[in-house]
Amino acid sequence: MPRKTSPESLPPSYRVVHGHTVWGLGLDAQGRCSHYNAEVDVVALELACCGTLYACIRCHEALADHPAQRWPRERLHEARVLCGACGTLHTAEAYLAAASNCPACGAGWNPRCNLHHPFYYEVRG
User: What residues pair up with 81 in beta bridges, in sequence order?
Assistant: First the structure.
């Protein structure tokens, strides 16, 4: 039986998604990575520590040379979130309020991503 390749064994990579550079492991044309690759996993998030769009927090952990830092609540209007379906950049405020659909194109976003919001944003005060 063939061995399954672990995401961390893939080479560091980036992909231009609708004109925006997204970093991750095993990226597809809409920014899905090898960690999260369901149809609805089309959101890339910019991290406060480096201002770089990553497909997910696990890709940042695997590729970046520094720990992730969350966006503070008072800067959520600056944080960028890329919809890989249409290429629209949203603020974190718009992303957090949108639930599980892109406000620009209506593409479905993974509703379970809300479990990961604390990795990216100071969401509770």
Answer: 45, 90
Q: Which residues contact 112 (CB under 8 A, 6 or more apart)?
A: none
Q: Which residues of 28-66 are buried (b: 16+ CB within 10 A; e: fewer)?
A: bebbbbbbbbeebbbbbbbbbeeebbbbbbbbbebbbee
- Residue 49 C-beta-side C-alpha neighbours within 13 Å: 13
Q: Cα–chain-centroid distance for residue 103? A: 16
Percent of the chain at pLDDT exceeding 90 = 84
Exposed / middle / buried, residue 26 (Cβ in 10 Å: 0-12, 13-18, 19+): middle
The two three-digit tokens of residue 61, written as one number? 């952990």
What is the C-alpha separation between 68 and 57, in angstroms, rounded?
A: 8
Predicted confidence at residue 2, as pLDDT, reads: 39
pLDDT digits (tens, 9 = 90+) for 44-84: 999 999 999 999 999 999 999 999 999 999 999 998 999 99
pTM score:
0.88
